[in-house]
Amino acid sequence: MAHTKAIGTSRNGRDSQPQYLGVKLSDGQAANIGSIIVRQRGTKFIPGSGVRLGTDYTIYAAVAGKVKFTTKRKTGYNGARRLVTVANVVPN
């Protein structure tokens, strides 16, 4: 006897959920303690003052205030320099 029924079987239907990554609060917006500022994979944005970095590289506010994005040069272990964006929360 046939292993499956005579009707066609679908090999699709195993799609994963979207990750919803990106910047959640833009420059100048108000952030409360624990507000998520950036969801990311790796450190595209690096944490500055008033923020913390989660285990999944999520940047969230540690103090209440306004979000401020700045840039700075960062030197890697191999001596290569790159321009990185720093996420800060400035207290009111």
UniProtKB/TrEMBL annotation:
<dbReference type="GO" id="GO:0006412">
    <property type="term" value="P:translation"/>
</dbReference>
<dbReference type="GO" id="GO:0003735">
    <property type="term" value="F:structural constituent of ribosome"/>
</dbReference>
<protein>
    <recommendedName>
        <fullName>Large ribosomal subunit protein bL27</fullName>
    </recommendedName>
</protein>
<keyword id="KW-0689">Ribosomal protein</keyword>
<feature type="compositionally biased region" description="Polar residues">
    <location>
        <begin position="7"/>
        <end position="19"/>
    </location>
</feature>
<dbReference type="InterPro" id="IPR001684">
    <property type="entry name" value="Ribosomal_bL27"/>
</dbReference>
<dbReference type="Pfam" id="PF01016">
    <property type="entry name" value="Ribosomal_L27"/>
</dbReference>
<feature type="region of interest" description="Disordered">
    <location>
        <begin position="1"/>
        <end position="20"/>
    </location>
</feature>
<keyword id="KW-0687">Ribonucleoprotein</keyword>
<comment type="similarity">
    <text>Belongs to the bacterial ribosomal protein bL27 family.</text>
</comment>
<dbReference type="GO" id="GO:0022625">
    <property type="term" value="C:cytosolic large ribosomal subunit"/>
</dbReference>
<dbReference type="InterPro" id="IPR018261">
    <property type="entry name" value="Ribosomal_bL27_CS"/>
</dbReference>
